[in-house]
Amino acid sequence: MSFNPFAVTAATKSVSAQSAIALASQKTGVDFSYLMGQAQLESGMRTSARSGTSSASGLYQFIDQSWLRVVKQHGAEHGMAWASDAISTSSSGKMVVSDPETRRAILNLRNDPQTASLMAAEHASDNKDALESTLGRDATGTDLYMAHFLGLGGAKSFLTKLASNPDRSAASLFPAAARANRNVFYTSGGQPRSLSDVYDRFAAKLDKGAGVATGTASGPFDTNALTMASAALEIDGSTVIPGNGEDSGTQSASAWAKATLDQFAGRVGGPGTGGDKTQLASLIRPTPASARLAYMMLSTMGA
Predict the structure, then answer these.
(1) What is the pTM assigned to this prediction?
(2) CA-to-CA distance for 64 and 75, rounded, in angstroms?
(3) Bridge-partner residues for 96, per DSSP?
(4) Which segments in the chain show pLDDT lower than 50?
(5) Helices (runs of H) and strands (runs of E) counted in the chain
(6) Are the beta carbons of 172 and 185 closer than 8 angstroms?
(7) Domains of the chain
(8) Phi and psi, residue 53, nearest 5°
(9) CA 151, 211, 287, 277 torsion: positive or negative?
(10) Directed axis angle between helix 288-300 and helix 248-264, to 10°?
């Protein structure tokens, strides 16, 4: 029987990006705050976002090859055996789908928030295990974002060099990525950023992204990361914010989330009051706080 991608599209349940991320966190054990921050940083929580410089698409801006790889590995676990079975690996290591119509249907799943969130969580979990094996320590959310930005091999190199020589120019280590992402690797004045500078800027963006995504952050948010991340991924080869339409249950969850995220980011009582940003960025396991937030969100959906 031939495959009908339109039937899959029609069967896909429409949910908000935030709700989909909460479900993915619950199912995979990946930290809710990290997934929220990454989605805000990648796409501004827009499920149909597309990059103008690469094949990156969807809530988490997966490029074609990265998406096919993660669906091949984890699709069957989440009811997508049809997609996983259709993907194979060529002799050159490229992920291929023989039928063009099926390939389009699989790639289009990047724009479904539920599927995108689940695959992003599984991808983060895989990267976490690999990074911790190399680094000999727990991986933080920023470590995982480096794997998303530079690919796993690039992240291992970046983080290893960061530990031994944090002041080294990041552009000297990743010249191709630097050419595609000058605002990541260079200051506005053209000075190269160090490895620690690049790492700290991404850590701050993830913290800010988590706050913006849950409606708890104030001030503008730099959305240039969508172009930056997708371009780097291609080189490596490898918004739904609570607003006027939310109900009282979601308002309560959002209010609680603000207090929690403020505490994590050190904003309770003003900057520098001892909040633990590492806890916000950690993907070791869901924190009790992020788990409670995810549970509260799910309860408002009747899950």
Answers:
(1) 0.67
(2) 15
(3) 88
(4) 1-14, 219-286, 288-289, 292, 295-303
(5) 16, 2
(6) no
(7) 15-236 (1.10.530.10)
(8) -120, 0
(9) positive
(10) 170
